Amino acid sequence: MTESFAPGVRVRDLTVVYRTPAGELPALAGVGLTLAPGTITGIVGESGSGKSTLALSLLNAVQPPGRIKAGSVDIDGLGDVVQLGGDELRRARGRQVGYVFQAAQNSLNPLKTVGKQLLDLGRSHDVADLPALVGEARALLGRMGLDGGRVLDSYQHELSGGMRQRVGIMLALVLNAHLVVLDEPTTALDMITQATILRIVKEVHRERGLTTLIVTHDIGVAAEVTDCLAVMYGGRVVEHGPTTAVLGSPRHPYTRGLIRAIPRLSGDIDEARALPGRPPTLGTIPAEGCVFRERCPLRMAVCDTVDPAPAAYGERTVACHAVGQPVAPAVRKEYV
């Protein structure tokens, strides 16, 4: 396979809107995020926070009624993918950017074996040596503890959820993509299979020299595998920095609330407290002010009218008017 490198990614002022009867509503509003080359970055947040929309934007794959309205996604070696289209964009997907979908079966054709889908992928990217591609796929599946020959001859319904997830990882890597996006890679998997998937992600990331983005609602997953962590709420990145710092001493009240809501494995189980209220939907995101203010214990008058801009605090960025105020640490030792 062609030699490659771990690319850096710079998302700048990204706005994604969805067309509704009420007009175009923002799913992402001016998002900025940097993925350093060779790192694993996690995105966490409640459902509807914009995590998957941001991930799809890295492939310029937001589908109607959604569209990228403004901003850029600059990837080393590719340029701004928002400006790519047609064959140029098709070649970038899979060849330079691999994507593992949230539900693995959604990326597999139920009418074709995995092997036939692999060959289709190779032909669509003008791979000259298809037998070598099959050999690479077998090797990847073998590294993930699967019988490559059997899996390639199987239809999706003949594979378990964990096996389909590993097939998705194989398809994302087989063309030697060095930017890989995994959308909820452990959802609906048992704990043993989840641990296996996370081990594979870390090993392949290290051995192949990847830049990896993992979307997850599970802070434990993020703590296990990521170097950096971005916390999203209401279509915005509200906190971003090294994982140990974000989880060990969270600055944004939403990050603190997420960590406080995690059930404890020992001690007083009553210490876990759910966040009050519900996250906003497309139709309820406020037009001005902080999107988190209705659920925030640190709400101030300025929060009603001014959307806080991300500000740098050492290696971390935080978007919160109250971030400078002293707060008690919410350290969860399991994640430090």
Automatic annotation (TrEMBL):
One GO MF term attached to the UniProt entry: ATP hydrolysis activity
GO BP term (any one): peptide transport
SUPFAM superfamilies (alphabetical): P-loop containing nucleoside triphosphate hydrolases
Domain (ABC transporter): residue spans on this chain: 9-259
Pfam families (UniProt xref): ABC_tran (PF00005), oligo_HPY (PF08352)
Top-rank taxon, per record: Bacteria
This protein's UniProt keywords: ATP-binding, Nucleotide-binding, Transport
NCBIfam families, alphabetized: oligo_HPY (TIGR01727)
Name of the protein this chain belongs to: ABC transporter ATP-binding protein
Organism: Acrocarpospora corrugata
Upper taxonomic lineage: Bacteria, Bacillati, Actinomycetota, Actinomycetes, Streptosporangiales
